[in-house]
Amino acid sequence: MIPSTLRITLIIAVVCYFVIILYFLKNRALNLKYTLLWLLAGVVMGLLVVFPEMLVRIIRVLGITDNMNGLFIICIGFMLMILMALTSIASRQNSKIRSLIQEIGILDKRIRELEKQSREEE
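The structure corresponding to this sequence follows.
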């Protein structure tokens, strides 16, 4: 179904993908909990490259008649899943930053009050 040269090229590409993800993980460019999503995507890509008939079965179960349309739908689904996860992470970080800014503002006000009190006592 897939020509052997294309399959070998895709396998090499998936292996390079895993090497890049593990390199980022080793250099702490990615946290482990965020890397798991990328690793899951890599495992699915690897399975679909090694067992392309699995893709055809999944596409038929979903009721899609054209293999390429099914592949695009699956890819778009994975991209949406990754985007939702990244949006969730950005939202959590935003609320943590807001909370930290508020705490810094309160501490700054408290420091100014204490400095003012110490100057008045002198």
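The chain has one domain: 4-89.
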